């Protein structure tokens, strides 16, 4: 069962909700927060230059492309990471069979903050930080309050070798936050994403699945 992607409501960020304005909180050391009273064009005003690049593993000319849509705060995504992804990477991505594209979904501000931490080290550190975020999901989410979660995410960044000033600058970057949300909205709308994790394999959408089912699907694609 996947976490449902909510199209409306104050608790979720939806593709069809019209856009989101990233604002600075008055509390020191907190990242930007979502405002539900957003002006649509601020997050979705996207030109090509404002779009955030995909994070990619594998060879550019791999015969099959897998796009994963996932949220750092989604327990089903963490379970996929724990039980499927390592085998998928070893057997299909690292062997040149699959080009893997990871796209972030933001159900809440905490998932966005996690994405900002993951991207803070650039493409070279992105997937290593992503591993840390998923492996410790229950721990960094545990405080339940913004200050505690922000501090835990900073600790993940520090563990990954990022500097304190570097992390603070990344988390305070409103332009990046808006670009990330705009990119997420555009991609999720294009691929009709309504749950996480979801996968687009050579242009066709699939729901969450076990490694065995994923391997069977990929083997069929590779045989064609």
UniProtKB/TrEMBL annotation:
Residues 30-223 form the Thioredoxin domain. SUPFAM superfamilies: Thioredoxin-like. PROSITE patterns: THIOREDOXIN_2. InterPro entries: Thioredoxin-like_fold, Thioredoxin-like_sf, Thioredoxin_domain. It comes from the Bacteria. Pfam families: Thioredoxin_4 (PF13462). May be required for disulfide bond formation in some proteins. Belongs to the thioredoxin family. DsbA subfamily. This is Disulfide bond formation protein D.
């Amino acid at each position: 069962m996947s976490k449902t992607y909510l199209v409306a409501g104050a608790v979720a960020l939806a593709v069809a909700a019209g856009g989101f304005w990233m604002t600075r909180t008055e509390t020191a050391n907190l990242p930007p927060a979502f405002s539900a009273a957003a002006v649509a064009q601020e997050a979705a005003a996207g030109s090509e230059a404002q779009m955030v690049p995909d994070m990619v593993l594998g060879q550019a000319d791999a015969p099959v492309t897998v796009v994963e849509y996932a949220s750092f705060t989604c327990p089903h995504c963490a379970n996929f990471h724990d039980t499927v992804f390592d085998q998928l990477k070893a057997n299909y991505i690292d062997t040149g069979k699959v080009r893997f594209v990871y796209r972030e979904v933001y159900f809440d501000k905490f998932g966005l903050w996690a994405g900002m931490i993951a991207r803070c080290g650039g493409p070279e550190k992105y997937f290593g930080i992503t591993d840390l975020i998923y492996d410790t999901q229950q721990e960094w989410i545990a405080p339940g309050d913004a200050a505690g979660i922000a501090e835990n995410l900073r600790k993940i960044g520090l563990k990954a070798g990022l500097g304190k000033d570097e992390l603070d600058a990344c988390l305070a970057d409103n332009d990046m936050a808006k670009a990330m949300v705009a990119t997420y909205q555009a991609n999720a709308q294009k691929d009709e994403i309504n749950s996480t994790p979801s996968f687009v394999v050579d242009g066709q959408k699939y729901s969450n699945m076990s490694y065995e089912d994923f391997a069977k699907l990929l083997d069929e694609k590779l045989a064609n």
